[in-house]
Amino acid sequence: MGSKYSRNSRREIRNGYAYIMPALIFMVAMIGFPILYNFYISFFDMTAQSVGMGHAEFIGLKNYEAIFSDPTMWKAIKNTFFYTIFCIVFQFIIGFAFAMFFSKKFKAARYLKGLMVISYMLPMTVVGLMFKFMLSPTNGVINDILMNLHLVKAPVEWLLNEKTVIWGLIIANTWVGIPFNMLLLSTGLDNVPQDVYESASIDGANSVQRFFYITVPMIKQSILSVLILGFVYTFKVFDLVYVTTGGGPVDASEVLSTYSYRLSFKTYYFGQGAAVANVLFLCLFVVALVYLKLIGKDEVSRSEEHTSEL
Fold first, then answer.
1. Phi/psi of residue 9, each to 5°?
2. Which of 60-69, 138-147, 283-292 has the highest mean pLDDT?
3. 50-85, pLDDT tens digit by residue?
4. How far apart are CA 240 and CA 87, in angstroms?
5. Are the C-beta atoms of residues 259 and 277 closer than 8 Å to each other?
6. Predicted local confidence at residue 256, as pLDDT
7. 83, 255 Cβ separation under 8 angstroms
8. Which pTM does this prediction carry?
9. Distance CA 6, CA 14 (A)
10. What's CA 78's distance to the chain center, in Å?
């Protein structure tokens, strides 16, 4: 009888491997191999000339030395983090506010929420072109609104000025990212039991106390997921920047992805472009490790709480 169960167990394990094998092969071929190959070519003098000759010289870390000795690399790193942090802050705050607003369950909530998702469904290239016109200093609607509200005296050259171009990109990406934050946070808010709020109200807790001591702790997982996913999606931005500004003016909006693209496909320094892409990958890899660590700590604390209750 024991051998029968062991045979069934082995059969289930084999069936499990058979089901996951296609996905594993796909991930190795389409994700794993490009990442490994990108690391490989970052250690070679891979240029248009060497590719044409069919031979690239191994140069070790010289590609990394070259990019980190270039001031544009440091400007791209600074712009990437600046853009990412402010986009996440604005998207999260406004998205959270909308999630709280739509959690009131009024009649038009479902339809208004659906309308808001339209911005998230638009291709980023379309968003880039749209905001390129909206932020125009001559006939842009955003400048018209600001001037009619007497917030500015003259049209702002959002995408033409080195000091304001990054803020123009932040405005565009924030508009796209608000629905994403709103939807994930709304899901977390829907899972909070209403009787908890009622009990807190009976005990005398006001709305601010209920928010910080009930809402935020009970949707902690959703908040963490939104922030980490938002960081990943925003940090690797390419299409919005490329379509809207191309990294200009004078590298003022250059980010790691556009800098890697420029090195690889405009100047044809493929090795240096791969090195920049690897820096971007390592930054996101560190963020992923931090996320896994935080998730692990939260699961441990939850299991300890459950054990103490038992």
1. -65, -45
2. 60-69
3. 877 778 889 989 999 999 999 999 999 999 999 999
4. 13
5. no
6. 95
7. yes
8. 0.87
9. 12
10. 16
Scan for tokens 């996101």, then name that residue: 284
Per DSSP, 122 falls in state S
Average pLDDT, rounded, for the chain: 87
In the structure encoding, which two tokens stand for residue 153, read together? 């005296």
Is residue 132 within 8 Å of residue 124, measured between CB atoms? no
In the structure encoding, which two tokens stand for residue 110, read together?
A: 């479902």
182 touches 102 (CB < 8 A): yes
* CB-based contacts of 101, cutoff 8 Å, min separation 6: none
15-24, 123-132, 224-233: segment of lowest average pLDDT = 15-24
Q: Percent of the chain scored above 70 by pLDDT?
A: 93
* Chain length of the chain: 310
Helices 33-41 + 270-309 axis angle, to 10: 130
Q: Which two tokens stand for residue 109?
A: 């909530």
Q: Taking Cα atoms as reference points, which of 47, 65, 66, 68 lies closest to residue 56? A: 47
Per-residue three-class SS string for 2-26: HHHHHHHHHHHHHHHHHHHHHHHHH
Complete DSSP assignment for 49-115: HHHHHT---B-TTHHHHHHHTSHHHHHHHHHHHHHHHHHHHHHHHHHHHHHHHHTT--TTHHHHHHH
